[in-house]
Design brief:
The protein is of the alpha+beta class. Helix content is 26%, strand content 24%. The strands form 6 sheets. It has a 6-stranded mixed sheet. The longest helix is centred in the middle third of the chain and has 16 residues. The N and C termini lie far apart (62 Å).
């Protein structure tokens, strides 16, 4: 009996995923545990293993398609098996809007697949491919479709562009509007015949200092941009800057590096120690250990501390839940596990939601002071800066570590924010005593 593979739901907040790579092709044998395809949410990447064995009978979505969670993606069964009842409606029976179902994360009007008539044949094109065609001026009469049910997809447009098939903007719009391509528009098509000798001249021309490359914004970059824009446009953000004497903190860290290996404590970092201190001070300030959602405070009973992690895919913020209940060693281990998963693209959405406060550390990059942007709907974020040598009144030189606290003035007044920052500085200055609590 044939089995339909659906797009998994990775967390309650995820509504759709993007298929990035198919590891199996139609007709390939499939064993339990084989990776069928790779896909991404807005922040994480996953591989989907096969739960049954058989043969890949049908692939229902192409690479780059946005698939709603729990929608069919492919069908596995026995060769020759009748799967017609499991297939989605084809172009002959389905309306264009139904054919474009995998792309429904775009606005409805934009997500409907464009249908055109060319030489009496109906042509379907995905919204992503349609947008790229309009942007690049590709000659759609020269495009070979490779998508499901004969649909033109983004990679087909790119192949045509690589081959030099271009047309006028009017011709592309006419095709997409459902009108036949004018015969006279086909003349400018490039690369149909070998390029004459003069065409090679531009390659030897002087360097074009205005040359540039364009690439679309990644899915995770779009999410970060949307979140940061909302943060700055919807909140009354204010930043307080302070510093503390890091002599004891650095001495304790040096002691751990020198003698902590036997106890499994040598890998504890300055950032771990800051997270530990934050988790102990945060519960004393309910408005800072909170989210503000639609004029309603969500004051957390535990310190769910998010930590900003720089990855190749963008900034991710995994959350250490109940951080105030963890020992320094346990917190450090938890932080390293989450940071590793973030860099490997293996965080689940649930590991990045529910944070009550965030810590962003740029100290290792030599940043002396900065203005961190709040991670909505949280009410505050702490920026950790590098150490700078300063002089005390008696002429003593000491390492001062900077802290920058940005808070939402709608939710937190300046005095409580300043008290939080002062108490945190005191906890870090006397870190060895903090551990005794």
């Amino acid at each position: 009996m044939a089995n339909v593979v659906i797009m998994p739901r990775q967390g309650q907040s995820v509504e759709s995923c993007i298929i990035t790579t198919w590891q199996k092709k139609k007709g390939d044998p499939v064993a339990v545990g084989d990776i069928l395809f790779s896909y991404e949410t807005d922040k994480s990447a996953f591989d989907e293993p096969a739960q049954v064995e058989g043969t890949m009978l049908e692939i229902l979505a192409a690479e780059g398609d946005v698939i709603p969670c729990l929608d069919p993606v492919c069908i596995i069964g026995t060769p020759g098996e009748d799967i017609s009842a499991l297939l989605p409606k084809t172009a002959d029976t389905a309306a264009p809007a139904e054919e474009a179902k995998p792309e429904e994360t775009a606005p409805k009007a934009e997500a409907e697949a464009t249908v055109s008539e060319s030489a009496g044949e109906r042509v379907f094109i995905s919204p992503r491919a349609r947008h790229l065609a309009l942007e690049t001026g590709v000659d759609l009469t020269k495009v070979t479709s490779t998508g499901p049910h004969g649909r033109i997809i983004e990679r087909d447009i790119n192949k045509a562009l690589d081959a030099g098939f271009t047309a006028t903007t009017e011709a592309v719009e006419a095709f997409l509007a459902g009108h036949p391509m004018p015969v006279e528009e086909e003349a400018p098509v490039k690369a149909e015949t070998p390029a004459p000798a003069p065409a090679a001249a531009p390659a030897a021309a002087p360097t074009d200092f205005r040359a540039y490359d364009e690439e679309p914004m990644s899915n995770i970059r779009k999410v970060i941009a949307k979140s940061m824009h909302a943060s700055l446009s919807e909140m009354a953000q204010l930043t307080l800057n302070s510093s503390f004497d890091a002599t004891n903190l650095l001495a304790y860290r040096a002691k751990l590096k020198e003698n902590g290996e036997a106890l499994g404590l040598s890998k504890i970092t300055i950032n771990d120690m800051v997270l530990y201190a934050v988790s102990r001070v945060l519960p004393n300030y309910p408005e800072i250990n909170a989210n503000l959602i639609d004029n309603t405070f969500r004051k957390y009973k535990h310190a769910n501390v998010g930590m900003a992690v720089d990855t190749d895919r963008g900034l991710l913020v995994p959350v250490i839940f109940g951080a105030e209940t963890l020992t320094l060693a346990a917190l450090s281990a938890n932080a390293k596990t989450l940071a590793g998963k973030a860099r490997e693209g293996k965080l689940t959405p649930d590991e990045m939601s529910g944070g009550s406060f965030t810590v962003s550390n740029l100290g290792s990059m030599g940043v002396e002071s900065f203005t961190p942007v709040i991670n909505p709907p949280q009410t505050a974020i702490l920026g950790v800066c590098c150490t700078v040598n300063r002089l005390k009144a008696d002429g003593t030189v000491y390492p001062a570590m900077g802290l920058s606290l940005t808070f939402d003035h709608r939710a937190v007044d300046g005095a409580p924010a300043a008290k939080f920052l002062k108490e945190l500085c005191g906890a870090l200055e006397n870190f060895d005593l903090l551990l005794a609590k």
